[in-house]
Amino acid sequence: MDIHEYQAKEILARFGVPVPRGGLAYSPEQAGYRARELGGSAWVVKAQVHSGGRGAAGGVKLCRSEAEVQEFASTLFGKQLVTKQTDANGKGVYRLWVEAASDIAREIYLGFVLDRKSERIMIVASGHGGMEIEDLAEEDPDSLVRMTIDPAVGLCPFQARELAFKLGLDGGQVAQMVTILTACYRAYRDLDAMMVEINPLVVTGTGDLVALDAKMSFDTNALFRQQQVAELRDRSQEDPRESTAGDHGLSYVGLDGDIGCIINGAGLAMATMDMIKLAGGEPANFLDIGGGASPERVVRAFRTVLTDGGVSVILVNIFAGINRCDWVAEGVVQAYREVGLTIPVVVRLAGTNVEEGNRIIAESGLPLITADTLADAAAKAVAARPRQAA
Ligand code: GDP
Ligand code: MN
Predict the structure, then answer these.
(1) What pLDDT does residue 389 have?
(2) How far is the CA of 126 from the centre of ligand 2 (A)?
(3) Which residue's C-alpha comes closest to atom 11 of ligand 1?
(4) Which of 5, 6, 107, 109 is the catalytic position?
């Protein structure tokens, strides 16, 4: 789960990371008021959306008067901000963060991620900040410094100092960096984060380190024990199809093709998408119905897949271990009748109660296309598509 920049800053500040002073605004008038309240003569107005790359997309602006703050704010509210990281629809801007402008001498990149290979939290940093990490990795890979943290001892001060030296910091900045790294690590660990990114972490004109931007995302599997984090969820920033699917225990990701997929298990879903491509088709989505799926959940999966108007065939591929083929078959038959399907449906069942499942499909009298293997199912789904104009 992602949160907004201002929320990440609030959290990190609580753990000891220095952040600029700022205030939240829900209207242009309030944005102007925030600027006056902060004082000074320059402010940065920042669209709060769950995406980076806002600066390049026109979602961040340095303003020099209260009127300019209000004016820029009024162009942002209600807008769909399209960045390099969003889809073509962009993300709706409903909150702005107005911040006292900082004087930037140097920009540093700092990120904390989970390194699955070493099974540890890893710090990735670069003395060249401001750029996205993907671009940094491509254009200046030698500038990247990586360091993993032993969970039994936590981040040691000597490690933090070593990292600070590698970034070319000196004197008092090293001590500030140690504080920042320790704070980020604690926030990451204590709050079950998946990612903490400060980009840029700046050295100001007076030589102090400040987090100018902040991004955090959290492990959804741990939200049950992170009530304060869970409350920061903002559904306006999510793809409504994905959030609604999530509410029903389904993981759904929309894609560009026309073959709708209803599958159990993320691995099988990935394999099925590969097989569809190999057979010459394009998947319309990734959908994992999870384990122990009831007929009702299968019906919900059909409804979810059909919210995508571009779907012309549905492929159901179940390898039942915890699931039961008979329940899935019942769900398919029920969905066919309730939803009033008019497009072809290919069903491949294997595993627990497969005989019963196949019997339900056969005796339903519905024009369901059955398949024995994954390859067979993918080929039949591709063949079942209505002929497209060449
Ligand atoms: P992002 O584009 O979504 O990553 O948003 P950022 O918060 O990183 O802001 C984008 C860019 O705006 C930064 O890389 C800075 O160059 C610039 N910026 C942000 N805040 C300030 C500030 O207080 N002063 C100055 N001079 N530039 C800023
Ligand atoms: Mn940034």
Answers:
(1) 46
(2) 14
(3) 55
(4) 109
Q: What is the pLDDT of residues 26-76, one digit of tens each?
A: 999 999 999 999 999 999 999 999 999 999 999 999 999 999 999 999 999
Q: Provide the pLDDT for residue 388.
A: 61
Which pTM was predicted?
0.86
Instruction: Specify which residues 124 forms β-bridges with.
Output: 111, 146
Joined together, the tokens standing for residue 228 give 């304060």
Residue 58: nearest ligand to its CA? Answer: 1
The per-residue DSSP string of 247-287 comes to HTT-EEEE-SSSEEEEESSHHHHHHHHHHHHHTT--BSEEE
Does the Cβ of 129 fall within 6 Å of ligand 1? no
Strand order in the sheet with 345-351: 251-254, 285-288, 259-263, 313-320, 345-351, 369-371
Domains and CATH numbers, the chain: 1-19+103-238 (3.30.470.20), 21-101 (3.30.1490.20), 240-384 (3.40.50.261)
What is the pLDDT at residue 189?
97
51 CA: nearest ligand 1 atom:
3
Q: Report pLDDT for 390.
A: 45
DSSP 56: T
Substitution site in 43, 109, 126, 212 for ligand 1 pocket (most atoms within 8 Å of beta carbon): 212
Q: Which residue positions in the chain have pLDDT lower than 70?
A: 388-390
Could you give the 3-state DSSP secondary structure of residue 153? coil
CB within 8 Å of 106: residues ≥ 6 apart: 127, 129, 202, 203
User: Which ligand sits nearest to residue 40's alpha carbon?
Assistant: 1
- Ligand 2 centroid–CA 99 distance in Å is 14
Tokens of 82: 């399209």
